[in-house]
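Tutorial, part two.
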Amino acid sequence: MNPLAWIGHGVLLVCAAAGRVVHFGLIALLRGLRGPWYPREIARQMVEIGYLSLPVVGLTAIFTGMVLALQSYTGFSRFEAPEAIPTIVVLSMTRELGPVLAGLMVAGRVGAAMAAELGTMRVSEQIDALATLATDPLRYLVFPRLLAALLMLPALVLVADVIGVLGGYLVSVYKLGFGPVEYLDRTIEHLEMEDVVSGLVKAAVFGVIVALMGCYQGYHAEGGAQGVGQATTRAVVAASILILTADYMLTEIFFSR
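Running the prediction step on this input gives:
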């Protein structure tokens, strides 16, 4: 096979895989919207994705804000512009680092759990049993996870933004010598609603990506325990790559003027 044919074959495989994932997500969404709904399952997934992810997302955010403040001080001090640190911290957290880091942390924690749970149900034939009992597996298993991730990732990112800015504030005030009022004034002065909204939109997209990849890989797992492990790995890797890709595309849409 010549190089061009090899490249074309790879592109076709990627397009086919993307089509299968999109088709899976659309079918689950359409069936879920038609009802019946499962509010208890949706609430359980919201707690699992949102509330139980708060510790890891919060720790990631506060240390990111602290490191960002220190690194910004090191760089801007060379140009005698340390007063730009509050602006750098708040814009970086709301636009990029908050959504991306929260998405990656949730992909590692929740996406892997979804793939493992659904994969185990698939190889143990529990999903087939649901269909036998006249319960649509996509409506009962996949749609609640998609909806919960869509709703809870923006909430997680909003909390991460606040915690990240708090981390930058603590380092700047208690280590770098900033005045508390001065730091907060500069933070609020340069923060616009568009910065926050763009981060929340990214978070919603990342939430759908995480849930979709976790559910798709787990739903189509095969080969026993080994297959479940492979599906879990594929879910995390694919979700992480798609999050970074979608982040660039959304940034291009929001801020390319």
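The chain has a mean pLDDT of 88. In part three we will examine how such features are distributed along the chain.
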